[in-house]
Amino acid sequence: MTIQYTTRYAIGREEVKTFTTEQLRAEFLLADLMQEDLINLVYTHYDRYIVGGAIPKNTALDLISIDALKSKYFLERREIGFINVGNTGTITVDGEVFTLENKEALYVGKDAKSVVLASLSINDPARFYINSAPAHAQYPTKKVGMADANILHMGSKETCNERHIHQLIINGIVETCQLQMGITCLQLGSVWNTMPAHQHDRRMETYFYFDLDDTQSVCHFMGEPKETRHIWVQNEQAVVSPPWSIHSGAGTSNYAFVWGMAGENLDYDDMDKYAPPELR
């Protein structure tokens, strides 16, 4: 078996107010996404979003359908995005080969029948981070490199949140139904991401933290702006963020993360912002 999945059901904001640390981690932290020679998926009930990881080390990995989709093939009613956070890899879509270097992305649209993941090196394989959302229309498969991204320079050294946001799979660069993905890179000396914090009630989001030394951690903040909670996150772990929750974090060093989202619209700036003094 080269593919597996688990399910996370939607949790309400009132419920979370009573959660212990372990309950928060069990519901929102995705701790073991990256596993060798396995496509490891989490099917969430937030906008039917799927989050996953894959390390095709010794064998190529075929993205076949899972029982939760009740479909003949994985992308029968879905679209998908891949971002490579490892060494060089390939993704073959219906016979067409796309080579992805580190931090490069590939969007694959609805109705693609065959998707196969592979690495060029067994000793240093590709590490594919995966996001997928339901799709109502078919759009072309497209590779997006870091040079193709729309880059936003946010924050400052003075507020410890100087960061570069690389918009990869986003409206204006790639046609999608609802999926959006990109990479945020914290600059040396900066640790805060997504500050000022925000939430967007019209879509959910996931954060996948990477390029974080094994001796360091990120404290991810979630919850309502006046009722925040936190989850400590390690390298190559992800957090699912419901529409009612903020998503922000501070690390013990600088790091990078992949953000991915889906929901009501494709307006990146559709968010409700909260200044630091407003948070509780």
TrEMBL record:
<comment type="function">
    <text>Catalyzes the isomerization of 5-dehydro-4-deoxy-D-glucuronate to 3-deoxy-D-glycero-2,5-hexodiulosonate.</text>
</comment>
<comment type="similarity">
    <text>Belongs to the KduI family.</text>
</comment>
<dbReference type="InterPro" id="IPR021120">
    <property type="entry name" value="KduI/IolB_isomerase"/>
</dbReference>
<feature type="binding site">
    <location>
        <position position="247"/>
    </location>
    <ligand>
        <name>Zn(2+)</name>
    </ligand>
</feature>
<dbReference type="GO" id="GO:0045490">
    <property type="term" value="P:pectin catabolic process"/>
</dbReference>
<dbReference type="InterPro" id="IPR007045">
    <property type="entry name" value="KduI"/>
</dbReference>
<feature type="binding site">
    <location>
        <position position="198"/>
    </location>
    <ligand>
        <name>Zn(2+)</name>
    </ligand>
</feature>
<dbReference type="InterPro" id="IPR027449">
    <property type="entry name" value="KduI_N"/>
</dbReference>
<keyword id="KW-0479">Metal-binding</keyword>
<keyword id="KW-0413">Isomerase</keyword>
<comment type="pathway">
    <text>Glycan metabolism; pectin degradation; 2-dehydro-3-deoxy-D-gluconate from pectin: step 4/5.</text>
</comment>
<dbReference type="InterPro" id="IPR014710">
    <property type="entry name" value="RmlC-like_jellyroll"/>
</dbReference>
<feature type="binding site">
    <location>
        <position position="205"/>
    </location>
    <ligand>
        <name>Zn(2+)</name>
    </ligand>
</feature>
<dbReference type="GO" id="GO:0042840">
    <property type="term" value="P:D-glucuronate catabolic process"/>
</dbReference>
<dbReference type="GO" id="GO:0008697">
    <property type="term" value="F:4-deoxy-L-threo-5-hexosulose-uronate ketol-isomerase activity"/>
</dbReference>
<keyword id="KW-0862">Zinc</keyword>
<dbReference type="GO" id="GO:0019698">
    <property type="term" value="P:D-galacturonate catabolic process"/>
</dbReference>
<dbReference type="InterPro" id="IPR011051">
    <property type="entry name" value="RmlC_Cupin_sf"/>
</dbReference>
<dbReference type="Pfam" id="PF04962">
    <property type="entry name" value="KduI"/>
</dbReference>
<feature type="binding site">
    <location>
        <position position="200"/>
    </location>
    <ligand>
        <name>Zn(2+)</name>
    </ligand>
</feature>
<dbReference type="GO" id="GO:0008270">
    <property type="term" value="F:zinc ion binding"/>
</dbReference>
<protein>
    <recommendedName>
        <fullName>4-deoxy-L-threo-5-hexosulose-uronate ketol-isomerase</fullName>
        <ecNumber>5.3.1.17</ecNumber>
    </recommendedName>
</protein>
